[in-house]
User: Fold this.
Amino acid sequence: MRLPVPEQILPAEDLGRVHFVGIGGAGLSAIARLMLARGVQVSGSDGVDSPTLERLREAGATVYAGHDAAQVAQADTLVVSTAVREDNPEVLEAQRRGLRLLPRSAGLAAVMADRRVLAVAGTHGKTTTTSLLTVALQAAGADPTYAVGGDLAATGTNAGQGGSDLFVAEADESDGAFLVYRPHVAVITNVEADHLDQWGTEQAYREAFAQFVARVDAAADGGLVVACVDDPGAAALRPVAAGLGRRFVGIGTGEDAEVRAVDIVLQGTTSSFTVVDEGAELGRATLRIPGRHYVLDALAALTVGLRLGLDFARLKDGLESFTGTRRRMERKGEAAGVRVYDSYAHHPAEIAGDLVAARSVAGDGRLVVAFQPHLVSRTRIFGAEMGRELGAADEVVVLDVYLAREEPDPTVTGALVADAVPHRRKRFVRTLDEAATALAEIARPGDLVVTLGAGDVTEVGPRLLALLEERDA
Assistant:
């Protein structure tokens, strides 16, 4: 459900009692957690119970599994997920009573009020970069408030109230939410066509990032944009920023970047690189996460900290302590000599990046991948490209499309992806259990199995590990 953004967004403390419809999602649960920390009375509902709902209950929220009109009886404001349907009984009751209705973006803007916002946007890498920036600033003593699209491994949560005026936020472009914020610093990881169900054309999608640059507060030290100029889409924003009077700092590996990562070494589960800032070598950092794309994410986070005047050594310590974010190349376990990882990759570029990283982790073992396409529209547009990128794996299992926000289309299935994998070591399956069974048949000692996708494919890893343990018993 898409709600209009009000012209005036009140601070969280002025919203009264706030009820979240779809509180179990990454975006709404983070906002709810921050409102609880500010002393706001919070309630919420989601379709099914989950660990996220239980943690929110423990934090003081009144949370329901299932939707019912009676659950908004005490609410003054509703914050509604885009995944919620227009006939949701709680939304209908709120409309009948004339309650304040806010989309997720306005809810996040409400908790950003009076903070210096560091907003991280981009087609890929937002969650990891936001997480890395958070831990780097914490290590440097900046103590930011943060709202991330995934749980930090170090804290087990996706949001936290800090003691400073800094607010680190993941700025999502999928529904245009990032155009609601007024950041002091904007980080742009990359710009590559996606979410065309929302934007219609690639040109409109790219223009939205130019509008995001225009949202950067020029009064805040001239407004700062940090973007990865290795990516053509992000690099194209340099003249846009200049024309708008915003400072632009390019990060990357080439000579056109002001802050560079050089001498990159990917070894096993680590990535190391040397940082060069405006020609001056600052030192070497070693991340506990594998992949060149994570090096660039870390470099962006480091650059923001440096431009805020923070100490390189302390920022580096934070980056080196980072153990990951849930569902971003997350280790799920090992059984029968088979290692199992899980990642959120659902776009061709993300698949490619994670498979390069996974190959480094696999070492001498084979790389086995299970992929679940996400969204009918994305699969229709990018399905063939997804399949081609999956060809980098030694064995591929493709599931059917995970439906979210859209109705099924019998002409668009996971078979479109499987058919495009450029080798014969592939299978198309319909269910999670079939995927786990297929992987158990394929995997042998020394292999690395990675489950990829933004849907419920994350459940396949634990099922596979259980099957492997049974087989090895």
